[in-house]
Specification:
The chain is built from 19 helices and 31 strands. By secondary structure, the chain is an alpha/beta fold. Among the domains are: 69 residues, no CATH class; 124 residues, ANL, C-terminal domain (GMP Synthetase, Chain A, domain 3), CATH 3.30.300. The strands form ten sheets. A seven-stranded mixed β-sheet has the order 5-4-17-16-18-19-20, with helices on both faces. A five-stranded parallel β-sheet has the order 7-6-8-11-12, with helices on both faces. Helix 4 runs parallel beside helix 11 and helix 10 crosses helix 11. The protein is globular. The N and C termini lie far apart (68 Å). The chain binds coenzyme A and adenosine monophosphate (AMP). Coenzyme A binds next to strand 9 and helix 13.
Length: 655
């Protein structure tokens, strides 16, 4: 492609008029983003290098399929890697890989990153991968996972990363939906106490899938080598040695960068599409104004590349902003102890840490006094960011007291790509309210509506919705499924994006996200579908009917719990059947579902119209008081349910 140049004309104009991009108070910035979205995001886009400027900042010709920066051309890999090499960051660390599970540490400079990524892109190109082709990435937390994503971005291929904790069948579903031309994978992952055999899982998934990738490029890890299938599989390192580096390909700002699957209400995951231009603009804005880090600072998102947090804030956000990003292969506890996070922060001079509240609950459980913290110099640490699930006020306050830095609970989703709500510490820090994700970020015009679309008064719970258009960074559609995009997100509240979360906006405008309004649960910050688990349970030969609900868990926030009703005439041991369905979920969805408990019941409690009373079942399982629902078809069922749950350790009353 021709060399990318900065959009200097526009930049000069911005400086000349003295209107520096988005400075001022949060209130001014936010107001302007809503009143003048094109002006606001047009200025924010100055942080990005474009090879051709946009025709229109916001293209609303085909609403609700909004497009940002239509007509513009750019390349995400160029912006995340090459321009930093050209602009004096060649020798700065781009990635620090810290892996307590393999006892490895490695620093990769921007120049080295460019070399690896360009060569890997060359390997893919040799295999016929080009613009618009899909590439599936199935890798653990190693630097090669980031190289893989960036190599795709360099070529204009659309990557789809699948989290390592999913089973072969889940992988197969994603292969079928995205129809990848190639797969980039590693031979294994390392979980504490066990090696995850990625290659056999991938082989099984490909054999299950109806769409067959032509090529597999496999990174052989020393902990376990994977077998190569002649003609289809290639050794990553061998190929890299002789690869011709590939240049960045010019992409439209509106072209897809990736597809990331996330749980919906059914067994078919939703392929969230992300564009190139709007995403870069939103991420760059957030690195400075929300996460408060400057180019050169060390930033750490302790998540996984398989989740949206990994896409936005392990790989793209920090690299676009010229930060050093940490790729951490370990857990908050047990690798080797609850001081691991503090060690990484002090050793690599981390300024901002982003993780899930579960990680802090795990640390708190093992080291409630925070004694491990005393061993480390945390003086450079600035801010803790939490997201991925509701943060309970206890954990929030504990983290705040322990670390003595601002703690920011922020709310977002795979669909949105970056935060809907946060405390924008890079602009100004507002008093935190534990249990709240604070204030809307630019472009997010949030409302709480009742089912009839009537706005709720401050403090009243309802559906959390965002007035359209959503800001740049949010999904433009679902992969190959415009219809489902409209059906799932746009239909119930015309003119708004339905987040699927319920919550309140209080008198101060703070948003409190309370629960999901659908069959999605959050287990240790991982988003899972109870509907999908029900589909697995229902496929057991002895099961007539079933339900899966999320119940309270002290560590993981929620865990799934299954109820099965047996077909008449089935006279087998109930515990055996419960074990079988537990195993089925692990085998078909994966260990990440953390589905460990199921119970056989005679009947499911239902309303007279046949709706399963999940809310009441949840209250019983959590040991909370409940009222007998007026619409229940048979009140005698509930004591039976309580008894079955007590048998497996649930439904325990406090005290
Ligand atoms: N590949 C393969 N298996 C994986 C995996 C991966 N990348 N990640 C997790 N798993 C497996 C685990 O080994 C575990 O299997 P097991 O049932 O055999 O023990 C299962 O999936 C559940 O994993 P996890 O949710 O990590 O629970 P855990 O009990 O192993 O660890 C915590 C508990 C709190 C330490 C862990 O949940 C954690 O670190 N949470 C932080 C949350 C987080 O990073 N969320 C990301 C979104 S921001
Ligand atoms: P995911 O798409 O995996 O990022 O999960 C998104 C979901 O996680 C949201 O819809 C919420 O239900 C939940 N979530 C994420 N962040 C928060 C938060 N800060 N507070 C409450 N819930 C959150």
């Amino acid at each position: 492609m021709h060399r990318l140049t900065a959009n200097q004309g526009r930049r000069r104009k911005a400086y000349k008029t003295g209107k520096m991009p988005m400075s001022g108070s949060y209130a001014d910035i936010y107001k302007r983003s809503i009143a003048d979205p094109e002006g606001f995001w047009g200025e924010a886009a100055e942080a990005i290098t474009w090879s051709k400027p946009w025709d229109k900042v916001l293209d609303d010709q085909n609403a609700p399929f909004y497009r940002w920066f239509s007509g513009a051309e750019t390349n995400v890999c160029y912006n995340a890697v090459d321009r930093h090499v050209e602009n004096g960051r060649a020798d700065q660390a781009a990635i620090i890989y810290d892996s307590p599970v393999t006892d490895t540490k490695q620093t990769i400079t921007y120049k080295e990153l460019q070399d690896q990524v360009a060569r890997l892109a060359g390997v893919l190109r040799k295999q016929g991968v080009g613009k618009g082709d899909r590439v599936l990435i199935y890798m653990p937390m190693i630097p090669q996972a980031a190289y893989a994503m960036l190599a795709c971005a360099r070529l204009g291929a659309i990557h789809s990363v699948v989290f390592g904790g999913f089973a072969a069948k889940e992988l197969a579903t994603r292969i079928n939906d995205s129809a990848p031309k190639a797969v980039l994978c590693a031979s294994c992952g390392i979980e504490p106490g066990r090696v995850v055999h990625y290659k056999p899982l991938l082989d099984e998934a490909i054999s299950l899938a109806t769409s067959k990738p032509e090529t597999v490029i496999m990174y052989q890890r020393p902990q376990e080598k994977g077998s190569l299938i002649e003609g289809r599989d290639f050794d990553w390192e061998e190929e890299i040695k002789t690869a011709e580096p590939a240049e960045c390909v010019t992409m439209k700002a509106t072209d897809p960068l990736y597809v990331l699957y996330t749980s919906g209400t059914t067994g078919k995951p939703k392929g969230v599409v992300r564009d190139c231009g709007g995403y870069m603009v939103a991420l760059c804005w957030s690195m400075k104004n929300l996460y408060n880090v400057a180019p050169g600072d060390v930033y750490w998102a302790a998540s996984d590349v398989g989740w949206v947090v990994g896409h936005s804030y392990i790989v793209y956000g920090p690299l676009l902003n010229g930060n050093t990003t940490i790729i951490f292969e370990g857990k908050p506890v047990g690798t080797p102890d609850p001081g691991t996070f503090w060690r990484v922060i002090s050793e690599h001079k981390v300024k901002a840490l982003f993780t899930a509240p579960t990680a802090f609950r795990a640390i708190k459980k093992e080291d409630p006094e925070g004694s491990y913290l005393k061993k480390y110099d945390m003086s450079g640490f600035q801010t803790l960011f939490l997201a991925g699930e509701r943060c309970d006020p206890d954990t929030f306050v504990w983290a705040q007291k322990l670390l003595n830095v601002p703690v920011v609970d922020h709310w977002w989703q795979t669909e949105t790509g970056w935060a809907i709500c946060a405390n924008p510490v890079g602009i100004e820090e507002f008093p935190a309210k534990p249990g709240s994700a604070a204030l809307p970020m630019p472009g997010w015009d949030m409302k709480v509506l009742d089912p009839n679309q009537i706005p709720q008064a401050p403090g009243q719970i309802g559906a959390l919705v965002a007035k359209l258009p959503m800001p740049p960074g949010a999904m433009p559609t679902l992969w190959n499924d415009d219809e489902r995009f409209v059906e799932s997100y746009m239909k119930d509240f015309p003119g708004y994006y339905k987040t699927g979360d319920a919550g309140i906006i209080d008198e101060d405008g703070y948003i409190h996200v309370m629960s999901r309004t659908d069959d999605v649960i959050n287990v240790a910050g991982h988003r899972l579908s109870t509907g999908e688990m029900e589909e697995v349970l229902a496929s057991h030969q002895d099961v007539a009917e079933c339900a899966v609900i999320g119940v309270y868990d002290k560590l993981k926030g929620q865990v799934p719990l299954g109820f099965v009703v047996l077909k008449s005439g089935v006279d087998r041991d109930h515990h055996e059947i419960a074990h079988e369905v537990v195993k089925m979920v692990r085998d078909q969805i994966g260990p990440v579902a953390a589905f460990k408990h199921a119970t056989v019941v005679k009947r499911l409690p239902k309303t007279r119209s046949g709706k399963i009373l999940r809310g009441t079942m949840q209250k019983i399982a959590d040991g909370n008081d409940y009222n007998m629902p007026a619409t229940i078809d048979d009140p005698n069922i509930l004591p039976e349910i309580e008894e079955s749950l007590q048998d497996i350790g649930f439904a325990q009353k406090a005290g």
